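Incident log entry.

Two folding requests arrived from the same account within the same minute. Monitoring flagged them as a possible duplicate submission, but the sequences differ. Recording both here for audit purposes.

Request one:
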Amino acid sequence: MPDSLAVHLIQINSLWEDRPANHAKARQLIAAVNPQPGSLIILPETFSTGFSMNLSVTAEPEGGPTEQFLREIAAKYQSCVIGGVVTQTADGRGMNQSLAISPAGTVLSRYTKNHPFSMGGECQVHVAGTSVSLFEWQGLRIAPLICYDLRFPELTRTAVRAGAEMLIYIAAWPVKRIQHWVTLLQARAIENLCYVIGVNRCGTDPQFTYTGRSLVVDPHGIIIADAAEQERVINAQIDPAIVRDWRSQFPALKDAGLMTNQCH
C-alpha cells in the first residue's frame, strides 16, 4: 500500500450539451498532467454536457459514451477515474450519478445524487438516490457525493459510519453561492475528521456562471490545494495516515456514536 495517494482535480469549462467536445477537452487537460499509475483522477458533475435538464441530450444508457470515456482514461493512466454521468431509468427519467472506474474497467461505485437541486428544476427530471456508496482505492475508503448533497451533513454521517475516510463532491456550483461551497467543504472535513475533495466546473452556461474553486481540504479543515477560477488541473497528495491518526487522537466520531466508544 503506498504512503500517499496522488489526486488530480480536473476543473473544466464544459461546453453546453456538447459531449464529444467536452470529452476531447478533458482528454487534453488530463494528458497535460500525465497522471502516474495508481492516481485518482476526478471530473465534475455532468462534465460531458454541462448542467442541462435536457434528457434527450444528457441521458445515456449504462455503458454509454461517457462511461466508455472514463474507462479509456482509467486504462490509459492505470488510475481510478471519477466523473459525472446522467443515466436513464426505465420510465424515461434521469439519474445524476458519480461513476468511479478502475484501471481494469470495473465500476467501483455508481452513486446517485440523493438531493437533486430543486431550484434548478433537477427534481423534475432526475430521480433521487436513496443511499451512499463507498469504494476503496489505494487502501483509502472513499464516498462519492454530488454538488447539492454538500448542504446535507446527515448524508456524510451515514458515509462515515460506513467507513468513509475521504468524501469527494463533484459539482456544478455557481458563483453566487461560492462562499457556501468553500465553507461547507471545510465544515464537512472538520466535523467528519476526514479529507474532503470538491471538484467544481468553471466558465458559463445559459443559466449560471461558475468560478471553480475546486479544493482539497485536510481533516483539520485546512485547504491544501485550490484551483482558483480558471480551467486547469490541480494536484495534491493525500496521506491516509493523517486521517487515521487524527481520528485516533481526537474522539469526536466516537462521541457522536459513529465509531466504537468504550465510554458507552
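Request two (distinct sequence, not a duplicate):
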Amino acid sequence: MPATLTGQLVVAISSRALFDFEAENEVFEASDDRAYMALQQQRLDEPAPPGVAFSLVRKLLAFNDGRLDSGPQVEVVVLSRNDPISGLRVFRSAKHYGLPVERGVFTRGASPWRYLKPLSANLFLSANDDDVRQALAAGVAAARVMPLAARASAAHPNELRIAFDGDAVLFSDEAEQVYQRDGLAAFREHELQRAHLPLPAGPFKPVLQALQRLQQAPGGGMRVRTALVTARSAPAHERAIRTLMDWDIEVDEAMFLGGLAKGEFLREFEPDFFFDDQVGHVESAAVHVPAGQVTAGVASAIAHGR
C-alpha cells in the first residue's frame, strides 16, 4: 500500500526559506545556476545556517514526538527551485540539525507550485514571489518569506507561536475592498452593519484550523499559541471576533491596533512566524520577528500596480 499524507498538516517549504542560502543566492544572481551548483557542491559537508522559517519547521515537527500510536501529525516537504545537487546539501543540513525531513522535490529553476496538489500541502513558504502567487491562485495558503527577517526568539522552546493578520489572510478581503475603494469611515460602517455576519474565509483559515487540531491532539509536549494582529479597531473588531466564533476557532491573543505599526507588538508576542498581506506591515514586523507576505487580496494588488 502506498504511503499517504492524508490527515497530516503538510507544509511545503523552499530551501531558501528553511535555510540561509543568501550568500549562495548572491552567486546565482551575479552569475548563473552552474556557478551556484558548483558552490553548493563545494559546501555539501557544510551545514547551512538556519533560515527565517527554521524555528517554525522545527517546532511543527516536534508535534510528532511522543505520538507514535496516532502516527505523525505534521509532514514537512522541501519544495524548491534548487537543483538536485543542491538538494543534497538541504537534506544533509536538515539531518545535521535533527530535522526529520524525508521528502523533497527539486525542479532546477522551474516553478514547483504544481506539486503542491499531489503533496496535499496545507501551506507553502517560499522566497519566490511568482511561486507564492501561483500557489494562492491554486487554493493553497502561501506566503513570500523575508529571508533577511529577524530570527525567532528561543524563549519558548515548547510552544509554537504564530500570528496572523485578519483581512486577506484569515478572512477574505471583502472588507478591505470597501476600505480601499471608499475609505476608513465607509469600512467601519460596512463592518458595523454586518457585525453579525461571518466574514468569508481567507486563504489561511485552514492553517488556523489545522493548528487548533494540533493543539487538541492527545500526547506530546508541544503547545500552540496563536494571535490575531490586525489594523482593525472598534467597532470593526466585532465582526472579526464573531467570525472566529462562528468557525469554532479560538485564538489566544487579539490585537486591534487601529493602524499602529505592528512590529513592536509582534516583538513582544515573539512568534515563530507572522503572516500579513500588506508589505508595509510585513516589513515592520520583519525587523523584529520572522515574517512573510500573503500576496493575495486587493491591498497586495494595489501595492504591485495590478
